[in-house]
Amino acid sequence: MDLISSLQEVTKLSHLYYSRQWMFATAGNLSTRDPSTKEQFWITASGKHKGELKVTDFVSVSASDGSLVQANEGLKPSAETSIHQVLYSQMPEVGSCLHVHTIDSNLLEFGVEKAEGYREIPIPPIEIIKAFGIWDEKPNLTMPVFYNHTHVPTIANEIKRYFTVEGIPKVPFLLIEGHGPTVWGKTIAEANKHLEAVHFLLQVMARRI
Ligand SMILES: [Zn+2]
């Protein structure tokens, strides 16, 4: 898939997620690795309404250091670009990262402390986790949940620390408490499949409280 087709696909998802109430107003951010230059990724620009996003509303950022590579005039990278940068740099096979703010994910409370930064939270062994490529009947799965620091690069640093200490998460997503999930996949389609499954999983978890 070329770059324009990739950006068109992500733009379509932005409109879809807006209609599902996953990206109200300017909330959330979506990105795709540049198919020709794997060294950079394209992410939704800051302050763009996700229901009206256009293919020109993306900026290009270096996957290795997060510096701005290319942007149309007046466009700035999203404040949460640092989180995408860590994910692309830690997982070279990842082609897309999607981050949304869903109501159900905000209903879940795990009490992750600021000082600890993150915590592993058990996931119920329900059918939907097969969407993550996990086929064990009763898997002992956990998901990483991070403290929602106001200073977003601090969250990104905690995610980097997680990868260093714990390795790559067994599930293709993480949750920032009181904020929302971020998923990844080899392709945009795979990341979208993961996000739909995460949404279902978090809905179930929120209803069990
Ligand atoms: Zn966010």
UniProtKB/TrEMBL annotation:
Enzyme Commission code: 4.2.1.109
Reactions performed catalytically: 5-(methylsulfanyl)-D-ribulose 1-phosphate = 5-methylsulfanyl-2,3-dioxopentyl phosphate + H2O
Keyword Lyase on entry: yes
GO MF annotations in UniProt: methylthioribulose 1-phosphate dehydratase activity; zinc ion binding
Co-factor requirement: Zn(2+)
Annotated Zn(2+) binding sites: H99, H101
Gene3D superfamilies linked to this entry: Class II aldolase/adducin N-terminal domain
Limits of the Class II aldolase/adducin N-terminal domain: 8-206
Keywords assigned by UniProt, alphabetized: Amino-acid biosynthesis, Lyase, Metal-binding, Methionine biosynthesis, Zinc
Annotated GO CC locations: cytoplasm
Pathway: Amino-acid biosynthesis; L-methionine biosynthesis via salvage pathway; L-methionine from S-methyl-5-thio-alpha-D-ribose 1-phosphate: step 2/6
Note describing how the cofactor binds: Binds 1 zinc ion per subunit.
GO BP terms in the entry: L-methionine salvage from methylthioadenosine
SUPFAM superfamilies: AraD/HMP-PK domain-like
Role summary: Catalyzes the dehydration of methylthioribulose-1-phosphate (MTRu-1-P) into 2,3-diketo-5-methylthiopentyl-1-phosphate (DK-MTP-1-P).
PANTHER family per record: METHYLTHIORIBULOSE-1-PHOSPHATE DEHYDRATASE
Protein name from the UniProt record: Methylthioribulose-1-phosphate dehydratase
